């Protein structure tokens, strides 16, 4: 029996994978999406739902090295640190810290800003085609600083965003409370990102995008990918406990799990998991009209369908 063949196979049915598949389909390609889980149920499901063209400043920064002891040992830190895990990943950690150097951070920031500058053009046509405009709210975002010290630490990041054309406005406490009267925590200053948006149902948005992809002739195979084998003519995809298939080109969009796909080249990348968490306060979504982030504690509050989602704390 001949193996199935596609022009392009996309591994990963999260936001990135589904959007890649839709654009490839629009270019006339015969596309298949592969994932061991159903679309939108991985990392894309549990995030803060923030549409963040302002997110060009990386986590690793010169300030991080100075604040690392507090992040590791403080009981109120947003960072959970596993010493046993760290001991087995010393090369990755040393590389991460090396990239906290000012010149490295500027290079990363410029690269991210260049990518994020294309977000509107890449995202909006797909949302419109899927009839999912009702799931996207255009009301900006606010990131709050509770103290002067926290604000001072953020000034280099604010300057970096301004250098790269990100719309950011520094606000005092009173304008922030006028915008979000329900806020009760201490507020010293905040950053207002007027061009930010948020999604009220991340999983629902991906499901709607994927439904459009399928209705336009896209293909779906719920399979776990074990390995791939590129050749001059095609890429052979070996699926665990299922028939293999071939494609002309392969897109790997499986996040940190991409590293487990042998032969893809991703196994050589310094990828690791950033495990995030969220909780939902049901019926409380009316308390905020936009995303609000607490800088000192590393989490966001996002009004979503059915509740207020608090997300961002990571390991």
Question: What does this molecule look like?
Answer:
This protein folds into two domains: 106 residues, 3-Layer(bba) Sandwich (FAD/NAD(P)-binding domain); 184 residues, D-Amino Acid Oxidase, Chain A, domain 2 (2-Layer Sandwich). Helix content is 32%, strand content 25%. It has nine helices and 16 strands. Strand 11 and strand 12 form a beta hairpin. Helix 1 runs parallel beside helix 9.
Give a quick rundown of the structure.
This protein is an alpha+beta fold and about 325 residues long. Helices cover about 30% and strands about 25% of the residues. The N and C termini lie far apart (about 45 Å).
Contiguous uncertain segments of 5+ residues: none
Beta-strand residue percentage: 25-35%
Question: Ends: how far apart?
Answer: 46 Å
Following the backbone from N to C, one meets helices and strands in this order, namely EHEEHHHHHEEHEHEEHEEEEEEEE
Rg over CA atoms, rounded to whole Å, is 21 Å
Global morphology: globular
Structural class determined from secondary elements: alpha+beta
**How many structural domains?**
2
Q: Please outline the major beta sheet.
A: 7 strands, mixed
CATH top level of the largest domain is Alpha Beta
Helix/strand layout:
Elements: E1 5-11, H1 15-26, E2 31-34, E3 50-51, H2 62-73, H3 83-87, H4 90-98, H5 102-116, H6 119-129, E4 136-137, E5 141-145, H7 148-163, E6 169-172, H8 173-179, E7 189-193, E8 197-199, H9 202-215, E9 219-221, E10 225-230, E11 235-239, E12 245-252, E13 276-282, E14 291-294, E15 299-304, E16 307-314
Parallel strand pairs: 1-2, 1-12, 2-9, 5-14
Antiparallel strand pairs: 3-8, 4-8, 5-7, 6-7, 10-11, 11-12, 13-16, 14-15, 15-16
Helix pairs in contact: 1-9
